[in-house]
Automatic annotation (TrEMBL):
Domain of life: Bacteria
PANTHER family given in the database record: HTH-TYPE TRANSCRIPTIONAL REGULATOR ANSR (PTHR46558:SF14), TRACRIPTIONAL REGULATORY PROTEIN-RELATED-RELATED (PTHR46558)
PROSITE patterns documented for this protein: HTH_CROC1
Gene3D superfamilies according to UniProt: lambda repressor-like DNA-binding domains (1.10.260.40)
UniProt-recorded name of the protein: HTH cro/C1-type domain-containing protein
Statement: the UniProt record of this protein carries the keyword DNA-binding: yes
Organism: Persicobacter psychrovividus
Length: 263
């Protein structure tokens, strides 16, 4: 390979790696201990960096000197990220969501109970698993795909009561997510969690937080998220209110017996 061809890869690789970290030329030149004008010449392939400078660049980006010079790193990183994002929310535009239908061909609202959550993380896109889930029929739903999830505990959903049913609409694309809105997220490590989302597109990540504890949050990269379901409704069963209503009714009956002994 001729020297001119080597320099073309070096300059484009330096620019590519720098922009991946959202660094300016001034920032990187300071890390390297050189003037910005000198570094700019490296990216333009008009000046070849010293061996000592190449070693620093290699250490900063965790890339070998040979790869810096001889390999088009944009292609390598694109292949790595495609494999890393496989099965994640980023891939949903090319992925067909597994759903079930009733005997009339109408789409069911598949209902996940806590007993199957561990399996769901592994089998969320396996037709046989989705088919065996309980089904809910809900009228008046808008266009889209919906799924119901029983909220397991306080950590899964700090803002909603345990035992409530979260009705979610499937999010097809990252661009459909609205900041500061509640979503149910299937994460490769945390499993199913219900959180508000703040998107950070510059780093291909999202901040997950709750209204209950806004100062406590997790920032996760897109590729770790398998599915996202947008909040549509919560079905809750207030046992304490039922008990209160029953108590009120009992008091009325007892009072009526006092007023009308013949009852």
């Amino acid at each position: 390979m001729a020297e001119g061809e080597i320099q073309v890869f070096l300059g484009s690789n330096l620019k590519f790696l720098r922009l991946r970290k959202s660094w300016t030329q001034e920032m990187l030149s300071r890390f390297l201990g050189i003037k910005r004008s000198s570094y700019k010449d490296y990216e333009l392939n008009s000046v070849k960096p010293s061996l000592g400078c190449l070693i620093k660049i290699s250490e900063i980006f965790s890339v070998s000197i040979d790869d810096l010079i001889r390999v088009d790193l944009r292609l390598i990183f694109d292949q790595r990220e495609a494999e890393q994002h496989k099965g994640s929310i980023i891939e949903t535009q090319a992925r067909t969501l597994v759903v079930s239908v009733d005997t009339d061909g109408e789409q069911n609202v598949d209902w996940l109970t806590p007993e199957v959550y561990d399996r769901y993380l592994q089998e969320f896109n396996r037709p046989a698993f989705i088919q065996e889930l309980p089904k809910i029929q809900l009228p008046m739903l808008e266009e889209g795909t919906f799924r119901a999830f029983t909220l397991l505990d306080h950590e899964m959903s700090p803002d909603l009561p345990k035992g409530a049913i979260f009705l979610g609409k499937y999010v097809k694309k990252i661009s459909d997510i609205e900041n500061f809105q509640p979503y149910l997220i299937l994460h490769q490590t945390y499993g199913l969690i219900c959180r508000n989302i703040l998107m950070i597109p510059e780093t291909e990540s999202m901040m997950l937080f709750s209204n209950f504890r806004p100062s406590s949050f997790n920032t996760v990269p897109y590729h770790e998220v398998k599915e996202i379901w947008a909040y549509q409704a919560v079905l809750r069963f207030d046992a304490s209110r039922k008990a209160a209503q029953f108590g009120e009714l009992l008091q009325l009956i007892l009072q009526a017996k006092q007023d009308f002994p013949s009852l």
